[in-house]
Design goal:
Chain lengths: ~400, ~400
């Protein structure tokens, strides 16, 4: 059950394709607070520029797929304003309360005519049952819609819920590793805590996912709270701890779903780097392995070629002794002291699985970092060789 | 005509495959000087550890494909020693004068039995006509052997020659962008100048090539001079200038051949970044675009999707105003002030070509940098999904 106090809906507005859900809306009827995190790319799409200063008071989110409305200059911002104004009018809100998100081709003007024409139908479609359609409307090259939910029970007071939806699935890289995410809760959460938990949760989940190392111009993750459950969460208490765990769990589910559905992906691989000299080095090592095209194509082919992992580690900037490195593939002690450990057959078996973990011990210190990645397949090339068509 | 004073040869020694040239040798009979540059990966193959301290006096180069002899520990170094000892004995040299290079799978022991068994035949095969075979013996996933040569004419004194061979074609990234390169000249070049020109030439050529961002454990580039032409080159004179231009031209030819023959590559694209705030930022911007999987798959598909280039620039670390960016594709003014310029059809035509240039003006300063890259194709994935088999 999605959290109370929200309605959602989606329509096929024909922004790019005729019969595909491409416009979604969520509105919080008993609004309490909102928070957001956005792309760190210096080329920021118009909806990012629009929404960033409006989180906090933003209580509705309008999202489209088809055009990213990025690199569209003043025209793009004026398209944002027109969209927010009409949505606000239909919902009885102030335009400043309407958050926006877009995904699609960069550089094309938003199909505002189709969007504005579709908005009244979209507003009429809002209901307690529109959440799945909303999750579908934000898909581009995603093969499945991605939602996650969590029921929260507290020592006292009513139960509550967290629900989230996200879309990937290319141009996914840390800071932040989602194109778009929308998370809702019917707890009433202290606004400062809501922001802080969203930032920390993003760092622990989405920022550890990489599909191709490309960070989007449109990355946006929103967290809205309605307070409609009657449960209040303030910093420091047991409820805050319960809420944090639930929120991180929803974010983690969504982040894993993104990596699992990375463009053309056939494998989900968790890269764990341990024993690094510093946290920064652990991060560099994990990310370099997770993004190496040679490592990712070996994942695709199921080729148990650990030399590529060593080579990626060696250029990552992490400092270590190549002959102190141990690598486990699943539970297989694959590499010991930087040398082959005669486990080729077992390693090949693990690499045939749909999901597995690669644990790298650098033997240089105590710091660790983990990342989620997927393989590079023929389909990644096919999908991205002709994305706009 | 290869330079005087050298002999080369190659044999099929059966290191990995039965009937493929896989062992090559070059010896300088009238030795004058040698220089080398090596991988900056902290995982360095045994032949790199062997050769690095021996350039200068090294006058023969023994190279194998099949095994990289990397991450092979003390065993790998002892395999180097045995190879160098036998080669030296057959050539009448000291083992310290034998440079080594290897390419192939990381982590496998060198097939030293096959190598030692093949060495006498290899030594017998040395001749003035063995250079093409040598260039073939260093190939792994290369589809063509890569050689370049240049005839040098000086204001006075005899003419001279420079010849080079290189192999790629995956795990190619700056610092340095070659797996293996061998350059020979019959000029007598002041040793300090020889080293310095090789370093500068590498920076200007090989270090600007990227296939997949993966830097190898085995990258080695050697430059040997015989002095057999009778032409002497010392720092500062006109001959030094002539020699430098010729050397850079040979290195540039080889670097371009590597990018053109990148694994699975169907396009060669020169990325020129201008108007950056600093050289470092120009470099980051050019490299990020050149290595972006989304940009490279768009090159493959001929998809004129400039938004991916903007998105890559925006995450590169370079500082600029997205609406000051101009991009030309060939001679087509593709993007102006960060916006689409209505040239989709012409841009698509350029992207259908085998080779083209992408010129990016950031409008933020005076610094520039260029890189050579290739596209990411289905074949890249196929080749690297099953490299070891």
């Amino acid at each position: 059950m999605p959290p109370k106090g929200f309605r959602a809906g989606a329509v096929a507005a024909g922004l790019k394709y005729p019969d595909r859900l491409d416009l979604g809306l969520i509105v919080c009827d008993t609004f309490q607070a909102s928070a957001g995190v956005f792309t760190q790319n210096i080329c920021q799409a118009a909806p990012v520029l629009w929404s960033r200063p409006r989180v906090g008071k933003g209580r509705a989110v309008l999202v489209n797929s088809g055009q990213a409305n990025a690199q569209t200059g003043a025209d793009g911002l004026s398209d944002c304003l027109r969209s927010a104004e009409l949505a606000a009018k239909l919902l009885g809100l102030d335009p400043q309360e309407v958050l926006l998100a877009s995904t699609g081709v960069i550089g094309s003007r938003l199909n505002t005519a189709a969007l504005l024409a579709g908005l009244p139908r979209l507003s009429d479609s809002l209901s307690d049952h529109g959440f799945d359609d909303f999750a579908k409307a934000i898909m581009t090259t995603d093969t499945v819609s991605k939602t996650a939910q969590f029921r929260l029970d507290f020592p006292s007071g009513p139960p509550a819920a967290i629900w989230g939806a996200a879309k990937g699935s290319g141009m996914i890289a840390p800071n932040m590793a989602t194109m778009l995410g929308f998370v809702l809760t019917d707890c009433a959460v202290e606004p400062k805590l809501l922001s802080e938990l969203l930032s920390r949760g993003t760092e622990a989940t989405f920022n550890r996912v990489t599909v191709d190392g490309d960070t989007s111009t449109n990355d946006s993750l929103f967290l809205l709270s309605s307070g409609a459950s009657g449960q209040t969460v303030i910093d420091g208490g047991k409820p805050a701890q319960i809420f944090e765990e639930a929120l991180f769990s929803v974010l983690d589910d969504l982040a894993r779903a993104l990596a699992r559905d990375g463009e053309g992906a056939t494998k989900l691989v968790e890269i764990v780097v341990e024993g690094a000299k510093t946290s920064e080095q652990a991060k560099m090592a994990a990310r370099t392995v997770a993004e190496s095209p040679l490592v990712k194509t070996a994942f695709f082919g199921g080729d148990a070629n650990w030399g590529r992992i060593l080579a990626a580690l060696g250029r990552s900037g992490a400092v270590f002794d190549p002959y102190q490195v141990n690598i486990d593939l699943g539970n297989i002690p694959w590499v010991r002291q930087g040398r082959d450990n005669g486990k080729d057959a077992q390693a090949t078996e693990v690499m045939g699985r749909r999901e597995y973990r690669l644990t790298i011990s650098l033997g240089a210190g105590e710091a660790s970092h983990s990342m989620l990645t997927c393989d590079f397949s023929h389909d990644y090339v096919t999908i991205n060789g002709s994305y706009r068509s």
